[in-house]
């Protein structure tokens, strides 16, 4: 389906693993990031061979939330477009656009515009959302977000890929109208987490799955269950699995891993071994969040770029 999509082909290949990075590219732990020098760091990441930059859809700072981090401060699509304009090839991944908080027609317009201006560079992760404060601020019902997600997903797919679709939805109605710009190809769309759905829905509808970090044995179980569900739904071709990992890269390259929030503190040599394990269980793309690092992001990106990326390079795009 995505044979001509350059970013997808550079990122995803069955049985292989590529690497990305989570914006912001800095160590700020649970406070607010400064967002300094992000374009320059993104350019360095691109030059080393990271295949994607991932951004979060967070509106409000909510200190009561389990993870009070505020994403990348700026709006996910506006700031993502800025980073696309400052780089040449690296993909923009959304992890993830919260469909119940974004009108699907407006989101379709925004995504189609980005895709028209920066062809084949958007990897669109979508979710049902979990931050109650954002839902309350927009006056959107939080408990029904699973139903809203399904309805918004259907609307989004129709308006993006059908000419003059007939749509009657709680989000609105379309008849004898069509979206512009109109795409001649599909944007890879990954579901993040379960989005309040079951595995069979995920297996039927997502072009791929983005799930939260877990130890390899447990991650292998959920990947296998998801891929089995896809086969049950008649989707037998390869569909990629992606995951984030918080990384505190130790100065000592031989330091063994110590679990931290959503990832590990580890030296680069053991990190390579861990990445090989994740590759072997079916992870196709893994992106590092450097928020909890003890070292400056530029140092970490340089070390990863020189010693780790050569072992997990971008795939050759054959066009």
UniProtKB/TrEMBL annotation:
It comes from the Bacteria. The lineage of its organism: Bacteria, Bacillati, Bacillota, Bacilli, Bacillales. Keywords: Flavoprotein, FMN, Monooxygenase, Oxidoreductase. SUPFAM superfamilies: Bacterial luciferase-like. This is TIGR03571 family LLM class oxidoreductase. Transmembrane segments: none annotated. The keyword Cytoplasm does not apply. Its EC number is 1.-.-.-. One of its GO terms (molecular function) is monooxygenase activity. It comes from Paenibacillus rhizophilus. Gene3D superfamilies: Luciferase-like domain. Residues 30-256 form the Luciferase-like domain.
């Amino acid at each position: 389906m995505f044979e001509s999509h350059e970013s997808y082909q550079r990122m995803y290949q069955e049985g292989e693993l590529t690497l990305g990075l989570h914006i912001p590219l800095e160590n700020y732990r649970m406070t607010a990031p400064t967002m300094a020098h992000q374009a320059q760091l993104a350019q360095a990441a691109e030059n080393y061979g990271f295949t994607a930059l991932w951004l979060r859809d967070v509106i409000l700072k909510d200190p009561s939330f389990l993870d009070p981090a505020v994403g990348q401060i700026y709006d996910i699509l506006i700031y993502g477009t800025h980073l696309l304009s400052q780089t040449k090839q690296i993909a923009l991944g959304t992890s993830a656009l919260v469909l119940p908080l974004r009108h699907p027609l407006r989101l379709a317009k925004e995504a189609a515009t980005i895709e028209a201006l920066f062809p084949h560079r958007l990897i669109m992760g979508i979710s049902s959302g979990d931050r109650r404060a954002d839902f309350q601020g927009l006056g959107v019902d939080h408990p029904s977000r699973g139903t809203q997600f399904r309805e918004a997903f259907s609307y989004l797919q129709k308006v993006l890929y059908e000419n003059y679709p007939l749509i009657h939805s709680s989000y609105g109605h379309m008849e004898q109208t069509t979206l512009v710009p109109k795409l001649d190809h599909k944007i890879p769309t990954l579901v993040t987490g379960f989005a309040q759905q079951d595995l069979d829905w995920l297996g039927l509808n997502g072009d791929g799955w983005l799930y939260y970090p877990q130890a390899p044995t447990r991650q292998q179980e959920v990947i296998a269950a998801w891929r089995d569900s896809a086969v049950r739904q008649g989707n037998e071709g390869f569909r990629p699995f992606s995951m984030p990992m918080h990384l505190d890269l130790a100065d000592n390259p031989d330091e063994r891993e110590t679990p931290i929030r959503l990832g590990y503190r580890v030296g680069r040599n053991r990190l390579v071994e861990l990445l090989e394990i994740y590759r072997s269980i079916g992870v196709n793309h893994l992106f590092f969040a450097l928020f909890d690092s003890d070292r400056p992001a530029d140092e970490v990106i340089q070390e990863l770029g020189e010693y780790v990326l050569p072992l997990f390079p971008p795939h050759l795009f054959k066009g």
